[in-house]
Amino acid sequence: MIFTGMIGAVVLYMDMREQRHLHDSVAGITFSLGKAADWQQQSFSIIDSGYYTLYLATSSRNPAPVSLHGAGLYHGTFEAQILDSSKNMLWQRAFGGPEVAIVPPPNTVWTYLDSAQLHLRGEESCILRIRVTGADTAFSKTSSELIIMPPQAFDIGVYIYGQALKLLGMGVLVLAGFFVMILGGYLQKRKGSVKIFQPARE
After folding, report:
1. Which side of the chain, N or C, has fewer Cβ within a 10 Å radius?
2. Confidence of residue 107 (pLDDT cuts 50, 70, 90)
3. Cα distances (Å, whole numbers) of residue 12 to 118, 152, 165, 181, 190
4. How high is the pLDDT of residue 10?
5. Are 149 and 56 in contact (CB under 8 A)?
6. Where are the domains positioned within the chain?
7. What is the CATH number of domain 25-151?
8. Cα–Cα distance, 145 to 158 (Å, whole number)
9. Given CA atoms 25, 26, 32, 33 in this order, what sign does their dihedral have?
10. Angstrom distance (rounded) from CA 53 to CA 87
11. Phi and psi (nearest 5°) for 183?
12. Strand order in the sheet with 125-134
């Protein structure tokens, strides 16, 4: 019982570590929406075939909260691309104006941009790149990051909650095994200490 619980706990832990890895970003490029810039790029590996999700994470460089009253939506433009190792285009899109739907944030805001279907082809790496073609000075005090996430079969929060319950069950199983061992030792010791009364012979 103890052995089964410990093995199950180790297997669950390794699976949870793997799933957490699958929910980490595979690439991220930091840039400014408030400054025009040429292409910036980063290489990444396709860990599985499927839809890779692109997000824009924008943070304020000023730690103090700022008022959003009267702040306008982003009206600059930027382009993003995904290339294979031979520089063939796998995905590309231009973004601008209300399509991005963000305002200068008081802290950090995540914005969904698009999904790109990528296929696993051996050990081949890809290139994520971005350039700002039209700056928006309202975002000059912000920093943004283009992030690409791998395919996700299910929500990581729901998965961790379910696996945590299983891990708790394995822990209960291990504790139950220890209790049975202690109880068995106690009963064995008690049995050995019991003296059998035998009447004296005349």
Report:
1. C
2. confident
3. 29, 18, 11, 24, 39
4. 57
5. no
6. 1-23+154-185, 25-151
7. 2.60.120
8. 26
9. negative
10. 20
11. -65, -40
12. 37-45, 125-134, 77-84, 89-96
165-172 own/partner pairs: CB under 8 Å, 24+ apart: 166/8, 166/12, 167/9, 167/12, 167/13, 167/16, 170/5, 170/6, 170/8, 170/9, 170/12, 171/5, 171/9, 172/5
Query: Is 149 within 8 Å of 28 (Cβ atoms)?
Result: no
Question: In this predicted model, what pLDDT tens digit does every residue of 161-185 receive, in sequence order?
Answer: 565 666 676 667 667 766 777 777 7
pTM: 0.63
Mean pLDDT, rounded, for 141-155: 83
Helix H, strand E, coil C: the string for 5-50 is HHHHHHHHHHHHHHHHHHCCCCEEEEECCCCCEEEEEEEEECCCCE
- pLDDT of 21 > 60? The answer is no
Residues in the chain: 202
pLDDT classification of 91: cutoffs 50, 70, 90:
very high
Give the CA-trace dihedral at 154, 159, 161, 164, to 10 degrees.
180
Q: Are 131 and 40 in contact (CB under 8 A)?
A: yes
Query: Nearest-5° angle of CA 129, CA 90, CA 152?
Result: 85
